[in-house]
Design a protein that fits this description.
Blueprint: E1 4-7, E2 14-17, E3 23-24, H1 28-34, E4 40-43, H2 50-64, E5 69-74, H3 76-87, E6 92-98, H4 111-117, H5 121-133, H6 141-155, E7 167-168, H7 170-185, H8 188-194, E8 200-205, H9 213-222, E9 226-231, H10 245-257
Parallel strand pairs: 2-4, 2-5, 5-6, 6-8, 8-9
Antiparallel strand pairs: 1-4, 3-7
Length: 258
C-alpha cells in the first residue's frame, strides 16, 4: 500500500504534511484544492517515531517529488516539516507552516485552559474523560470519533464540516507526540529552526488555541526570510472555517508564488 497520494499534474513540487500526529489524510481537502493549479503530494505518515516519520517523508519526496519542493505542514506536520527542512536543506525551496503548535514551552502552557474556557461545565467534565483516554492504548472507534469532534468544535471559530478524510491513529499520536513534547521542552526544536535557511511563511488563525505568538515571536528572531500571516475569525484548521477559508487559500497561493 502506498503511503502517499498524488494530486494534479507534474511537476510535483508541493508536498503537504498532515498533523496529529496520527491524523492520516487530514490535509486531503487542501491537497485537492491546491491541485487545481499545482502538482501536489500528500504523504501519509505511518511510523511511530519522529526519526521514522522523517525517513518516511524523505523516501516519498526523493522518489516522487520534483526537487526542490515547497513543503507545507499543518499543526504537528509543521513541526515535522521544520525538522525535515533543517536536516535536508537541499530538498527545500520554501517552508509554509499552517497552525503550528508553539515552538517554545512557555507559549504552550495555556492551550488546554483556552480550550476548556470555551466549554460549559458539563461539557468540560466529558472532555476531561475523553482527554484522559488518549493515554490509553485501547480507545474504541466511538471514543476516537468523539475526541475528533470535540477538537474540531473547540479549536474552530465557525467550522465547515467536510466529509471525513482522515483516520486518527491513537498509537502514532501517543508515541510521536510524547517524543515531540520533549523536543520542545529541551529547546532542541528551536535549535533546529535556527538551521533553516530557506524562506518561511507561517499562517495562523487568531482563534486557534495554540497562540500565534508562540510561532511568530521565535521565528521572526531567527529566520532571515520570514513572513507571518494572521487570519481573523479562524481556528486551528483554516480550510474548515466559513469566514477564513477563502483568505486562507489566497494566503497559501501567495506564499507559493512569491
Amino acid at each position: 500500500m502506498k503511503n502517499f497520494r498524488k494530486y494534479g499534474k507534474e511537476p510535483f513540487n508541493i508536498v503537504i504534511v498532515h498533523g496529529g500526529p496520527g491524523a492520516t489524510g487530514g490535509v486531503k481537502q487542501v491537497a485537492k484544492t491546491l491541485s487545481a493549479c499545482h502538482g501536489v503530494l500528500e504523504p501519509l505518515q505511518t511510523k511511530t517515531s519522529i526519526s521514522g516519520q522523517i525517513q518516511e517523508l524523505k523516501a516519498v519526496v526523493k522518489e516522487n517529488a520534483d526537487l526542490p519542493i515547497i513543503l507545507i505542514g499543518h499543526s504537528w506536520g509543521a513541526w515535522l516539516s521544520i525538522i525535515f527542512a533543517a536536516r535536508y536543506p537541499s530538498y527545500i525551496q520554501k517552508l509554509i507552516l499552517i497552525s503550528s503548535a508553539p515552538l517554545e514551552e512557555k507559549y504552550a502552557l495555556n492551550i488546554e485552559k483556552t480550550r476548556l474556557d470555551r466549554l460549559s461545565k458539563k461539557t468540560k467534565a466529558k472532555v476531561r474523560l475523553i482527554t484522559e483516554k488518549l493515554n490509553n492504548p485501547v480507545m474504541t472507534n466511538e471514543e476516537i470519533d468523539r475526541f475528533e469532534k470535540f477538537i474540531i468544535e473547540v479549536d474552530s471559530y465557525n467550522p465547515i464540516f467536510y466529509k471525513k478524510g482522515q483516520k486518527f491513529n491513537v498509537k502514532i499520536f501517543q508515541k510521536v507526540w510524547n517524543e515531540a513534547v520533549q523536543l520542545r521542552k529541551s529547546g532542541q526544536l528551536l535549535k533546529l529552526c535556527r538551521r533553516i535557511k530557506c524562506p518561511v511563511v507561517a499562517i495562523h488563525g487568531d482563534y486557534d488555541p495554540h497562540p500565534y505568538q508562540g510561532v511568530k515571536k521565535p521565528l521572526e528572531l531567527i529566520i532571515k526570510n520570514f513572513q507571518f500571516i494572521l487570519l481573523k475569525k479562524c481556528g486551528h484548521t483554516p480550510w474548515m472555517e466559513k469566514e477564513a477559508k477563502d483568505k486562507f487559500y489566497a494566503a497559501v497561493e501567495l506564499a507559493i508564488n512569491v
